[in-house]
Write a structure and sequence with these properties.
Length: 294
């Protein structure tokens, strides 16, 4: 069985103050991309998760272990991940892989699931508990259980689905990835970044109203603000070069995704994004449709 794990964009990322648990309150719109890791799943003699190019244990392996801990008794699986989403690039690739593994415990969420998966006897409550398991794995994982445009609050655990947006495309400049999310949030704290909860509530209302009718994000480009940009740029000055390059194209919106370093330009059509990419002297450019999973 082949499963897609779509990357995501942050359409705006508004940062709140740190919580007692050390996490930050957030307000953001998440949308899936056609860019996705490919995950091959097959029965095996023992559980095994293979992801070339990712050192140490990854989130997908932790997700499978969490399912076993909760009593999921699907057959032993060999899960092999073909990475297409750049690693540590602010595109949620690892979280998407973990969410894709969790979806194995809810076969109705997996297209064309094979008989050996449909017939597995889940322990009571495992499927209902997937959101809680996802939240334990990371802030981006809950929203990736059902990839779709969503308003995300809390530290990522509060996910409000919104109507699919009008067609648009993205030009991504990931700059090689490799920027630690923790390092960016720590730097944001050192810089004193963060908004009060009342401000996040107001922004959430604005984002919900702007996106709630299925508009393209290009219609509310002024709301696509990323509060983490100063922190990310201070750690990786080359982010500024990527953003400047995109501002020099016909992109209708330019912003940083997540904790970076991926700079994003949005365009009405895929062909316009491809034309813009052709004008840039960048070997890291990725062009894809945005707003829906593959």
């Amino acid at each position: 069985m082949l499963v897609h794990a779509p990357a995501k964009l942050n359409l705006g990322l508004y940062l709140g103050r740190p919580r007692p648990d050390g996490l930050h309150e957030l307000c953001s719109l998440f949308e899936p991309l056609a860019l996705a890791d490919l995950i091959q799943v097959e029965e095996a003699e023992r559980d095994e998760v293979i992801c070339a190019g990712v050192e140490g244990e990854n989130l997908a392996a932790r997700a499978l272990a969490k399912l076993r801990e909760r009593g999921w008794d699907g057959p032993p699986l060999r899960i092999e991940i073909e990475k297409r989403t750049p690693v540590a690039a602010g595109l949620g690739g690892g979280s998407a892989d973990a969410a894709a593994v969790l979806r194995l415990a809810a076969p109705a969420c997996v297209r064309s699931s094979p008989p050996w998966l449909r017939e597995s006897a889940n322990a009571p409550g495992v499927v209902a508990d997937l959101t809680a398991i996802a939240a334990e794995l990371g802030a981006d994982v809950p929203s990736q259980l059902r990839p779709a445009l969503s308003l995300v609050r809390g530290a990522g655990e509060r996910v409000e689905p919104l109507p699919a947006p009008a067609e648009h495309a993205a030009l991504l400049l990931p700059g090689g990835g490799g920027l630690s999310t923790k390092d960016v949030f720590d730097q944001a704290d050192r810089l004193g970044l963060g908004r009060e909860e009342t401000a996040l509530d107001r922004i959430a209302d604005e984002l919900r109203a702007a996106a709630g009718a299925g508009a393209s994000p290009l219609a509310y480009a002024e709301l696509l603000v990323n509060d983490l940009e100063p922190a990310a740029r201070s750690l990786r000055p080359d982010i500024g070069d990527a953003l400047d390059a995109l501002h020099g194209t016909t992109a209708g919106a330019v912003f940083l995704s997540g904790s970076g370093p991926t700079a994003v330009g949005l365009f009405p059509t895929l062909s316009e994004a491809e034309s813009a990419a052709a004008t840039l002297d960048r070997n890291d450019a990725i062009v894809c449709m945005a707003g829906s999973a593959p």
